[in-house]
Amino acid sequence: MAPRRPRLYDALFSRHLSRYRQMAFVTGPRQVGKTTVCRSLAESYLSWDIPEDRKAINAGPAALAAILGLDRLRRGQRIVALDEIHRWTHWKGFLKGFFDAYEDRMRVIVTGSSRLDVYRRGGDSLVGRYFLFRMHPFSVAETVCHDPPVGIVRTPARVPEAEFRALWEHGGYPEPFLVRKRGFSLAWRRTRQHQVLREDVRDLTRLQDIGQLEALALLLAGRSASRIVLRNLASSLGIAINTAKAWIDTLVSLHHGFLVRPWSRRVIRSLVKEPKWYLRDWSGIEDPGARAETFVACHLLKAVEGWTDLGVGEFGLFYLRDKEQREVDFLVVRNGKPWFLIEAKKGDDALSPALAYFQAATGAKHAFQVAIDAPFEDADCFEHHRPVRVPARTLLSQFL
Asked: 13 near 133, Cβ under 8 Å?
């Protein structure tokens, strides 16, 4: 097994716990490293999946506090990590009582797979008592810097070629990224897909026909970076359109993939309404163009969710396409206003004219055509205000 690498989230969660009283709720894809990071920060770790820990939690806040020594005189706060506690029916009530009684003596990290983000919604009695952090796989920026950025974008940093190649070939999930062996990555990806599509679906939903959901996932595996036409998907599987939509929502909630929706505000003659689908793991995508676009999409999702979680603004990820077939892969919106456009390419192609068109239409400050194969340039991409071709190694190093 490859040694553990420092993560951006080590510093990010540590900073939060040292500054604020609120619990840190950490969610994200299965096997993204949530438990590993949070256990490394905590003095006390309890998991709902461990019978002894489950018994201690079931005993109630006061009994657990006694077990953890929170009733003893000590300086500072003990960091307590509670893993997969949302599997318990009464987890919200327990956390509310535990936090309200002992917040002056402890700091709490609550970790869980994608289900945590689903279960925390609806009748949220914990409002004001936690901050949500969405954890992502390794990215270009995280391979060269493990500290949260001072501002929003970083100064460009050269990523070692071996690191970039490993990301491109094995993906950003910690184990395959660090082991870097093709056979291991294939087996890991197959096992993870089974866990997500079988175990997580069973735990999260009442879906009976899991085989049909797997068939949908298999169909979507070959359509990353493509627009989703629900009618066509439903027809291919012999299911209702509403069922197809619900199943895609399930795959998104389990972090198997994500949707990027079209931005239409202030875009003249905008027509397209269908979202685009992207896998959360680009490493298994065979088509180079689709892999390049998905690679960039995953980096952008990590950036917009991370910037939002850090409290530096509200960010969103969209795409643009009009009825004249002009299209730009991505638009990042900052506090409701278009900020920058990105067209993703595998090679260093000629600059797409759609970038200039949509930059003028949206008023976005920056427009980039990102090339996966282009060598690193030690230059700040955000100093340019006209459409410009940039290396992925440069631009992505400026994100999270």
From this structure: yes
Q: What is the largest CA-CA distance in the chain?
A: 70
Q: Which residues contact 334 (CB under 8 A, 6 or more apart)?
A: 313, 314, 315
Query: In the chain, count of helices (H) and strands (E)?
Result: 17, 13
Q: Are 37 and 13 in contact (CB under 8 A)?
A: yes
User: Which pLDDT tens digit goes with each residue over 195-254?
Assistant: 877 777 666 666 666 777 788 888 888 899 999 999 988 888 888 899 889 889 888 988
N residues, the chain: 400
In sign, the C-alpha dihedral spanning 286, 145, 153, 37 is positive
Is residue 393 within 8 A of residue 139, CB to CB? The reply is no
Residue 232 CB coordination number (10 Å): 13
Structure token pair of residue 96: 């509310």
Beta strands in the chain (DSSP E): 23-27, 44-47, 78-83, 106-111, 130-134, 226-227, 257-262, 276-279, 315-321, 327-334, 337-345, 366-371, 388-391
Considering only CA atoms, which of 297, 309, 392 is closest in space to residue 8? 309
| Structural domains of the chain in order of their starting residue, each with its CATH number | 8-134 (3.40.50.300), 140-398 (no CATH)
How distant, in Å, are the alpha carbons of 22, 112, 124, 220 from that of 128?
Answer: 7, 19, 10, 38
Name every residue whose Cβ is closer than 8 Å to that of residue 340 and which is 6 or more positions away in sequence: 331, 332, 364, 365, 366, 367, 368, 382
Do the beta carbons of residue 224 and residue 290 sit within 8 Å? Answer: yes
Phi/psi for 51 (5° steps) reads -55, -45
Global pTM exceeds 0.90? yes
At 388, the amino acid letter reads V
What is the DSSP code string of 48-60? TTSHHHHHHHHT-
Q: Cα dist. 126→25, 60, 101, 129, 221 in Å?
A: 11, 17, 14, 5, 37
Residues 272-293 have pLDDT tens digits of 688 999 999 999 999 999 999 9
